[in-house]
Specification:
The complex is a heterodimer of chains A (233) and B (289).
Chain A (H helix, E strand, L loop, with lengths): L2 E8 L7 E8 L4 E5 L6 H9 L4 E8 L2 E2 L5 H7 L1 E4 L11 H9 L10 H7 L1 H5 L10 H14 L4 E5 L7 H18 L2 E6 L2 H7 L2 E6 L2 E7 L6 H8 L2
Chain B lengths: L1 H28 L6 H17 L4 H22 L8 H23 L12 E4 L2 E4 H23 L1 H11 L1 H6 L4 H23 L11 H14 L5 H21 L1 H18 L3 H15 L1
Antiparallel strand pairs in B: 1-2
Classes of the chains: A alpha/beta (233), B mainly alpha (289).
Chain lengths: 233, 289
């Protein structure tokens, strides 16, 4: 098991938004967490990444308890994170953003920028451009490329489809699948875009009001109505 | 003409050296350090006391840089680290730090120190004498800007600190220990203030209120320059240097200082993000092609 979250409670301040959430992610899997806006998906993945403290419960990554580790330590241990809204550093150039990724863990080999450019050729064309001037799709590519540059074991993506034209969402999905297949990087992503969920997920957890209300896998992932029921009020 | 140029160099050096430590701390950490003047004063005390003890001035200046840098690190670990991201709270707390430092120095060393004489003598151009030390201060200000530019654009620390300045949370998720970056940044800002104090110690009377004379020009330079700790002070130092030199020469020092405040008010009205905001807007436009 690459990642195990066991009865995790977390939130902002003392208020629990995520309540007793347990999930597992196996090595090489693509797992999604789905649900409507404001049900606690992002809060949960931020807790997994160490950006929010777990009020109780435990998080294990690569068989180690990381519940109390800081985000920067988890990143060095092998968690890559692509935040909601992509979170590029707007006044750094594309190349400087990618350099941030290559310096995550100096003891571990990072990914060559040329490999990143192979996956995202547009970034090579724009490497001297300020990241804040890129389009939504390009920023998504940069955020994924930046996380990838640290060669993570687990790539966590928070709503990768947000702010991207529908025509580009399919390309981003394909790219994430390619990264998973070719580089063996495990993917955990939060999403509410039905197309991306169905196209990418091998297994998904449905979340509502801060708790896991269902787990969908196999053939059920093609059951549009069942998935839709988790995404609508 | 030589007089005006000399006066400009003098004003530019004073503005840059006053502001640079404050600009680094505010630009990178969004901490408004009201104890900045007292950090400068501490640098002046260390340099003066060390020189009086027989240490050469250059070594005394280095001692001030290291001493105030370490002092800044201690203040950061004990106090400032609890205020990261709390700009307004930092104003009150650093004001408290400034009072403690000023009164502490008064109790320890009395109301003033025996002043140092200005080294290096003067050169005569066109019948007027110009202090070589003041010219050296101008060169130091330029060299300091270049060194800071290299530190913040060509090193890993610089890249990480610029990233942390833009989005600390994302920087943390990229493996950056932002607290360490902030501590180091505060220490650099303090060390730069210490350098300023040490450099100006041989030119002014050193007393517990020594830093007060630097506070207004430093804040005006940072406000007019904007958040970028490199572009901001360089441009505002240049513009404010020209304004205060012109007014100094025409109507005297009082109007020179008044001019700084008028420029600050105008810049805030026209360009709320200061010169660095304008430069960043232009560079984004250029980057878009």
């Amino acid at each position: 098991m690459l990642l195990t979250a066991d009865r995790v409670f977390s939130g902002y301040g003392k208020v629990d938004i995520v309540r007793s959430v347990s999930i597992t992610v196996n090595e090489g899997e693509i797992v999604s967490i789905i649900g409507r806006n404001g049900v606690g998906k992002s809060t949960f993945v931020k807790t997994v990444m160490g950006l929010l403290p777990a009020h109780s419960g435990s998080i294990r990554f690569q068989e180690q308890d990381v519940t109390r580790s800081k985000a920067n330590d988890r990143a060095r241990q092998g968690m890559g994170y692509v935040p909601q809204g992509h979170g590029v550093f707007p006044t750094l150039t594309v190349e400087e953003n990618l350099m941030m990724g290559t310096q995550i863990n100096k003891k571990k080999p990072s990914m060559n920028l040329l490999t990143i450019y192979d996956y995202f050729p547009k970034l090579k064309e724009r490497k001297r451009q300020k990241a804040g001037t890129l389009s939504g799709g390009e920023q998504a590519a940069l955020a994924i490329g930046r996380a990838l540059a640290g060669y993570p074991e687990l790539l966590i993506l928070d709503e990768p489809s947000e702010g991207i034209q529908p025509s580009i969402i399919h390309q981003i999905s394909e790219m994430i699948r390619k990264i998973n297949r070719e580089l063996g990087i495990t993917i955990l992503f939060v999403e509410q875009h039905m197309g991306m969920i169905q196209e990418l997920s091998e297994r998904c957890y449905a979340m509502d009001k801060g708790v896991i209300v269902g787990e969908v896998g196999g053939e059920d992932l093609h059951n549009y109505d069942r998935l839709k029921s988790y995404l609508t009020v | 003409m030589e007089d005006l140029l000399y006066q400009f160099m003098n004003n530019f050096a004073f503005l840059i050296l006053s502001a640079i430590g404050l600009a680094v701390i505010f630009g990178m950490m969004k901490i408004i350090n009201l104890a900045h003047g007292e950090f400068i004063m501490l640098g002046a005390y260390i340099a003066t006391l060390a020189t009086k003890a027989g240490i050469p001035l250059l070594l005394s200046i280095l001692l001030s840089v290291v001493g105030v840098g370490i002092f800044g690190l201690i203040v950061d670990r004990l106090i400032i680290s609890r205020l990261y991201g709390r700009t307004l709270d930092s104003v009150v707390v650093t004001w408290g730090v400034s009072l403690v430092m000023q009164q502490g120095i008064l109790i320890l060393f009395g109301p003033s120190l025996e002043t140092l004489s200005t080294p290096l003598g003067s050169i005569s151009i066109g019948g007027s004498d110009y202090s070589l030390y003041r010219i050296l201060l101008f060169v130091t200000a330029i060299v300091l800007l270049i060194l800071l530019y290299l530190l913040f654009t060509k090193t890993t620390f610089g890249l990480h600190s610029r990233a942390a300045m833009q989005n600390a949370e994302i920087a943390r998720s990229m493996g950056v220990n932002t607290n360490r970056i902030y501590s180091f940044t505060f220490s650099i800002g303090a060390a730069l203030a210490g350098l300023t104090g040490a450099l100006y110690a041989p030119t002014m009377a050193v007393s517990p209120t020594f830093g007060g004379g630097f506070l207004m020009p430093s804040f005006v330079t940072v406000i007019v320059g904007g958040a970028n700790p490199l572009i901001g002070p360089s441009l505002s130092g240049g513009v404010l240097g020209v304004v205060s030199t012109g007014l100094d020469a025409t109507w005297g020092t009082f109007f020179g200082r008044l001019g700084l405040l008028v420029v600050a008010i105008l810049v805030i009205r026209i360009m709320p993000l200061g010169f660095s905001g304008l430069v960043e807007k232009l560079s984004v436009r250029k980057s878009r092609g």
